[in-house]
């Protein structure tokens, strides 16, 4: 019986994790999933993820894949089986069998992130780990005018991290917009892929430019300059969610 | 300068607390607020609360009052001053001066609680501390037919805790209903006041009766019997929120 390729959609509360990727400093989401898979298979199972989220970043639609040699388990039963072994801050939302060539990272056509901003002075205690407390009410239409330069194919060096090792800083953004959602302002951005900390750098920069009442083309000028010195400070991890990953050829990328 | 009576609306995430009331086992919300008040006043300040929530129960509208001898602080400035000294799982939403005779507990005309139930098999990790995972989809109209007996003045002995020391088990319920709210089913109940663990006993009983497909009048029969043996198991604290407390003479009690 050949190994089957299983795709899993995963949600997690990033608060108690040192990010996605296994390392020695502390708990990671990857390690929790590996442990749960190992428990089922009695041997180590390798995992690929669509996005390696940073320490404190959450996910409501991370995607991973792994190859299983367990013949008797229907693909959709992996979700409850894994959940029964996982801690409450990680949940496998669904599992399905996919073609062998499916790779959570390399097959992804787009990633969508959402960043939650709380404009009021007081954040409800139950929401304190899941949003940035801005403490002021930004102007939504000004934020959207500033963000208007992001869609398209650009060199995002300005919004990259110093330690980023990507050979090219060019990425394609499909959509980027702020909208109100309950007590929050949400920034939603879809792109082919992202540089390390790019979403948080963009959010931090947009909020700073809006707060300083800079002209609508100031973000465009910062982007065009390809100069990290022109980015604002990186917004904290607490507000960021990896929302979904798009693979389907017929799906809209926005 | 006479002492001023200050009313504060308080929200908290009950996850990390051994309930409202100060005791020796661990952190309590009352103790955190007392510490914060003591820090401002340089002496101990006594607090009264509308409801003494249990270990793990949350609040989005608990009400307390205290007398202050600080002459220079405008009443509304107590909220940010206290918040600057409080941990993130307690927030003072607002403060205002009230007449001397106002008492958070004895002046309250009604308390409103909400209980959050997640019907699906998987609870999002970020919501795991704030709802009961039921794991099945109950029938909303059947639940509401069962709950239909609750409004009115009744002896709630059936839904009281064994250790309850109240001299009378009679309470007046103003409204009680289930409704859908996003991924949740919410049970909202308003009453003059509640017996210890009464809301959780009622929720546990209603869910059990619905799950066993009992007739619509089975809840009414359990209530009329004044027999604790007829109550279902007490629903866990995790889904319960003290939502608001009503004082205003002109306010609706529903």
What would the keywords be for this entry?
homodimer; 254 residues; alpha+beta
Largest interface: pair, residues per side: A-B, 23 and 23 residues
Major beta-sheet overview of chain A: 10 strands, mixed
Distance between the termini of chain A: 39 Å
Average pLDDT rating of chain A: 95
Assembly state: homodimer
Number of helices of chain A: 5
User: Could you tell me the strand content of chain A as a percent range?
Assistant: 25-35%
Gross geometry of chain A: globular
Query: Can you count the beta strands of chain A?
Result: 10
Poorly predicted runs of chain A are: none
Query: What structural class do you assign from the helix and strand content of chain A?
Result: alpha+beta
Helix content of chain A: 10-25%
Q: Over the alpha carbons, how many angstroms does the gyration radius of chain A reach?
A: 19 Å
Helix and strand element order of chain A: EHEEHEEEHEEEHHE
């Amino acid at each position: 019986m050949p190994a089957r390729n299983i795709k899993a959609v995963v949600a997690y509360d990033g608060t108690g994790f040192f990010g996605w990727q296994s390392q020695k400093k502390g708990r990671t989401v990857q390690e929790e999933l590996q442990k749960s898979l190992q428990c089922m298979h009695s041997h180590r199972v390798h995992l690929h993820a669509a996005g390696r989220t940073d320490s404190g970043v959450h996910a409501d639609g991370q995607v991973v894949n792994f190859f299983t040699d367990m013949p008797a388990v229907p693909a959709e039963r992996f979700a409850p089986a894994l959940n029964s072994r996982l801690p409450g801050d990680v949940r496998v939302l669904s599992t399905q069998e996919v073609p062998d060539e499916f790779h959570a990272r390399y097959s992804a056509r787009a990633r969508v992130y959402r960043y939650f901003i709380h404009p009021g002075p007081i954040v409800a205690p139950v929401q304190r780990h899941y949003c940035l407390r801005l403490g002021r009410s930004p102007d939504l239409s000004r934020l959207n005018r500033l963000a208007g330069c992001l869609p398209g194919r650009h060199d995002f060096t300005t919004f990259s991290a110093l330690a980023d090792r990507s050979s090219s800083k060019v990425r394609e953004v499909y959509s980027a917009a702020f909208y109100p959602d309950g007590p929050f302002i949400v920034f939603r951005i879809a792109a082919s892929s992202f540089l390390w900390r790019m979403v948080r750098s963009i959010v931090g920069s947009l909020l700073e430019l809006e707060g300083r009442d800079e002209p609508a083309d100031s973000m465009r000028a910062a982007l065009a300059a390809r100069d990290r010195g022109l980015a604002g400070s990186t917004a904290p991890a607490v507000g960021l969610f990896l929302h979904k990953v798009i693979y389907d050829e017929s799906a809209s990328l926005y």
